[in-house]
Amino acid sequence: MKRLEDYIRTIPDFPKEGIMFRDVTSVIQDAEGLRLAVDAMSGLVESVDYDVIAAAESRGFIFGAPMAYNSGKSLVLIRKKGKLPCDTISAEYDLEYGKATIEMHKDAIKLGQRVLIVDDLIATGGTTEAMIRLVEQLGGVVAGVVVLIELAGLEGRKKIAPHRLFSAITYEGK
Q1: Window from 45-54, 67-76, 89-98 with minimum mean pLDDT
Q2: Distance separating alpha carbons of residues 143 and 140, to the nearest angstrom
Q3: Which residues contact residue 86 at a Cβ distance below 8 angstroms, ignoring those fewer than 6 apart?
Q4: Active site residues
Q5: Above 90 in pLDDT, residue 72?
Q6: Longest C-alpha distance within the chain, in Å?
Q7: DSSP states of 58-122 as a string?
Q8: For residue 157, what are the CA distances in angstroms to 60, 129, 130, 142, 153?
Q9: pLDDT higher than 70, residue 51
Q10: What is the pLDDT of residue 174?
Q11: What proportions of the chain, in percent to the nearest 5, are helix, strand and coil?
């Protein structure tokens, strides 16, 4: 049986020279890889008390949906600006060359709900920090953040402190 790490494809120099791109599509295109990923992420947060899962577009949806289903929790979608049909709140965050905005429906989180944030990867932590701001703006409490991959060398964990981060696979480099 393969380990979860065996399913991660590393692509050197993508999208630019010096970057080691960690590709999760190689995990999800294999049924056993997907099962291992969802099970590993779910196992990391077994003892976390949460009411709802919030997942980021688009790869966060891939892991968040089965985790929500398996735990009997609902799923809140966090999407790129302009993709949600009802009233939204938004948070802007920095990209390497510019800014981006994510949104969530205003009625997605109820006051005091404990929210588990799910995504495929944390690098610099910008997207995750913006998701945390959205949850907290609606009065939710971030119970934790769980990702498949953490790129520890980019220090995203520091950016989202003091929130708990759970990662199934950690790469020390960038």
Answers
A1: 89-98
A2: 9
A3: 105, 106, 107
A4: 59, 96
A5: yes
A6: 46
A7: THHHHHHHHHHHHHT-EEEEEEETT--SS-EEEEEEEETTEEEEEEEETTSS-TT-EEEEEEEEE
A8: 17, 10, 13, 14, 10
A9: yes
A10: 61
A11: 30, 35, 30
Count of all residues that appear for the chain in the document:
174
pLDDT tens sequence across 122-174: 999 999 999 999 999 999 999 999 999 999 999 999 999 999 999 999 998 76
Could you tell me the pTM of the whole model?
A: 0.95
Angle in degrees, 0-180, between the axes of helices 59-71 and 31-44, rounded to the nearest 10: 70
**3-class DSSP state of 153:** helix
Residues 50-70 as b or e (16 or more Cβ within 10 Å = b): bbbbbbbbebbbbbbbbbbee
Residue owning tokens 């703006």:
137
Asked whether the predicted pLDDT for residue 98 surpasses 90, the reply is no
Task: Name the token pair of 67.
Answer: 């985790």
User: 168 in the Ramachandran plot: left (φ > 0), alpha (ψ -120 to 50) or beta?
Assistant: alpha
